[in-house]
Amino acid sequence: MNIGSILGRVTFPFFGGTRPARLVVGQSFGADAINAQAVSIHAQLMEGLGLGQFAEPRMDSAAA
Question: What is the pLDDT of residue 50?
């Protein structure tokens, strides 16, 4: 893991939901499998709390 790869992801532009919600930098040690499972659990939690509209990124532009 190096600071360049982290900074590259932090400054990565977010247009149309292209930046992943979770990103493993370096060796995953199984974190990628955990992240894959967490996606559905997170969606269920947000729906259960009545916050489902916030589960997906907005596609409209703040500048518009």
Answer: 92
